[in-house]
């Protein structure tokens, strides 16, 4: 583990279209660096507040991993979908229904718009940005330097530009936290020891290990859309021959499959147009992720990151090429492997391979609140997780780490530091986004967390929620003329609820429901804690629906139609007084009627 305040500047890359940045006639209100899904959500939210936003992306493609192969986005229950990600999924479903028909295979395979082709995700993001003329987007704008004036960032300079770009508020939405680090914000790379935060999943001693990276390949078996992989540059047969004993002894049953005993994990359900999101296979003797080979990525310059990128790409493509073409591979596996290839209509500019590596973890800011395993625990005796009254987002996944080191040979060895811990839906407090010593910066992706805590935050739907919160917080900081740590969280929460974003998981009151904002306000205050006991199995969900998707978490319905009993009424009245509300008069209420009668004191 390393605590750092330095940044190795990236190498020069020309601005999009060869345009040089000019000195601004007036500063932008908000500069967002990194057009990841979180960055796009932040830019859209700030623009919706009337702010002039500059969204800068260091690569040639916006959308981060969601447009670069990670189409099987990670969540557990549909009841947890909210805010910007729910908007994205609804738009995607409408796209498939409009193009192919409401009862089409493509609309069905999109799983309500949550599982979409990379090109469709890109199109949806482009449309969302185009609807907001206050957002200016520049691609191929890699950060060169940051200038601070005391506790504030004054401006940033980007490769290919002579003039610094000024803004009133900055948001770092990169996976690596590059702008944050360049601004001198404290951060960590690596794992904390178990005693630092009392985390059961942490190692005994701190170290510099990082969760492994891999590509999220887009593959298909459809002949007319299938591109046969080519032998990659630098290929050496001896690097891949070690897989042969595993094919012979039965430890590998197939090349592509789900969820185990295979080499390339073809996520289920499949994507529209019979494509698959290909991922690393957890707890398998053959892994696509390469923990240990990525340690120089977080602080690496562009040349270092390019080298790591190429090493991972060679591993992925070379392995499939070996399985498809080497005569020593048993015919059963070779024939199966030859049925697969890259999607012809995806990533045409990068040989049909994703242009971004899946950076699961890099730098992590040390901010006002360090998110840890303890923030996701069940509240004492409760079905729900620990209450955060300053929550600005929710998470609906698990503590999930694909491994941070590797023991033994690449073929047949094992990843270490791997864990998958079920937990209830959890709240994310505002302080996770806020640096301790920079007054006009928010960091929704390389957020303030321990290694274990980060493994519950690092999912794209959650990052989108955190980005959306950052965008609204940026607007309020400017409106209130406040430093980011003084943004009025109740006002921020109210803006989020009005936008359909959740700060509290209520399985039976979704965004768009007439009671959504009431339930969010009261749930975030703590009104619905204590209604259901802690389950015998922590993090218990409902019945499995498909793949990783389940029915709603048990004990997380608010049941507004249920009569308000005397004991709960008394507790709610106490809470109303504590939080500045006036309880409704009368004695006979359902829970919903009581909430609808609640007024500010």
Description:
The longest helix is centred in the middle third of the chain and has 24 residues, at 302-325. The model is unreliable at 4-24 (pLDDT under 50). The termini are far apart. The protein has 15 helices and 24 strands. It has three domains: 2-84 and 117-193 and 362-498, FAD/NAD(P)-binding domain, CATH 3.50.50; 217-350, no CATH class; 516-600, no CATH class. The protein has helices at residues 37-48, 83-100, 105-109, 118-130, 178-182, 194-197, 244-248, 302-325, 331-338, 451-457, 460-480, 489-498, 516-525, 566-578, 591-596; strands at residues 2-4, 28-33, 53-56, 135-138, 143-149, 152-158, 165-172, 187-189, 217-220, 226-227, 256-257, 264-266, 275-279, 341-343, 364-365, 391-395, 398-407, 414-422, 426-429, 441-442, 544-546, 549-550, 581-582, 599-600. A hairpin with a 2-residue loop joins β5 (143-149) and β6 (152-158).
């Amino acid at each position: 583990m390393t605590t750092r305040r330095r940044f190795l500047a990236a190498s020069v890359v020309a601005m999009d279209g060869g345009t040089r940045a000019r000195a601004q006639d007036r500063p932008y209100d908000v500069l967002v660096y990194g057009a990841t899904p979180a960055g796009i959500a932040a830019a859209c939210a700030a623009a919706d507040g009337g702010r002039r936003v500059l969204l800068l992306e260091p690569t040639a493609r916006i959308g981060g991993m969601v447009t670069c192969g990670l189409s099987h986005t990670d969540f557990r229950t549909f009841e947890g979908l909210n805010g910007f990600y729910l908007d994205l999924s609804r738009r995607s479903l409408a796209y498939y229904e409009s193009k192919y028909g409401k009862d089409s295979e493509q609309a069905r395979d999109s799983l309500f718009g949550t599982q979409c082709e990379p090109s469709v995700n890109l199109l949806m993001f482009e449309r969302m940005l185009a609807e907001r003329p206050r957002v200016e987007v520049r691609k191929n704008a890699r950060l060169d330097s940051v200038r601070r004036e005391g506790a504030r960032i004054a401006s940033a300079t980007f490769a290919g530009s002579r003039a610094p770009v000024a803004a009133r508020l900055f948001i770092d939405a990169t996976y690596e936290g590059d702008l944050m680090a360049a601004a001198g914000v404290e951060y960590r790379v690596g794992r904390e020891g178990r005693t630092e935060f009392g985390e059961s999943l942490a190692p005994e001693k701190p170290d510099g290990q990082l969760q492994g990276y891999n590509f999220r390949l887009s593959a298909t078996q459809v002949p007319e859309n299938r591109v046969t992989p080519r032998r990659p540059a630098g290929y050496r047969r001896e690097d891949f021959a070690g897989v042969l004993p595993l094919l012979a002894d039965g430890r590998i049953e197939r090349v592509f499959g789900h969820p185990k005993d295979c080499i390339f994990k073809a996520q289920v359900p499949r994507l529209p147009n019979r494509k698959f999101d290909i991922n690393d296979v957890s707890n398998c003797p053959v892994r696509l992720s390469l923990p240990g080979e990525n340690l120089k990525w977080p602080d690496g310059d562009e040349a270092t990151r390019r080298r790591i990128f190429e090493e991972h790409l060679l591993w992925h493509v070379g392995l499939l090429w070996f399985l498809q073409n080497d005569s020593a591979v048993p015919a059963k596996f070779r024939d199966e492997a030859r049925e697969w290839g890259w999607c012809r209509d995806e990533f045409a500019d990068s040989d049909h391979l994703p242009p971004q590596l899946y950076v699961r973890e890099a730098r992590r800011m040390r901010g006002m609140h360090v998110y840890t395993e303890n923030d996701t625990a069940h509240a004492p005796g409760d079905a729900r997780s620990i209450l955060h009254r300053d929550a600005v987002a929710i998470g609906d996944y698990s503590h999930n780490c694909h491994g941070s080191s590797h023991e033994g040979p690449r073929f047949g060895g094992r990843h270490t530091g791997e864990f998958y811990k079920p937990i209830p839906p959890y709240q994310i407090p505002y302080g996770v986004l806020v640096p301790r010593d920079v007054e006009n910066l928010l960091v929704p992706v390389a957020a303030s967390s321990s290694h274990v805590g980060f493994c519950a935050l690092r999912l794209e739907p959650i990052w989108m929620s955190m980005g959306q919160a950052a965008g609204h917080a940026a607007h309020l900081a400017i409106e209130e003329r406040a430093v980011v740590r003084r943004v009025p969280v109740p006002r921020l929460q109210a803006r989020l609820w009005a936008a359909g974003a959740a700060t509290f998981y209520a399985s039976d009151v979704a965004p768009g429901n007439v009671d959504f904002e009431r339930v969010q306000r009261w749930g975030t205050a703590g009104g619905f804690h204590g209604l259901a006991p802690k389950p015998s199995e922590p993090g218990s969900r409902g019945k499995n629906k498909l793949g990783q998707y389940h029915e709603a978490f048990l004990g997380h319905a608010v049941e507004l139609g249920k009569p308000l009993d005397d004991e709960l009424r008394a507790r709610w009245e106490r809470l109303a007084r504590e939080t500045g509300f006036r309880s409704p008069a009368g004695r006979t209420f359902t829970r919903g009627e009581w909430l609808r009668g609640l007024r500010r004191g």
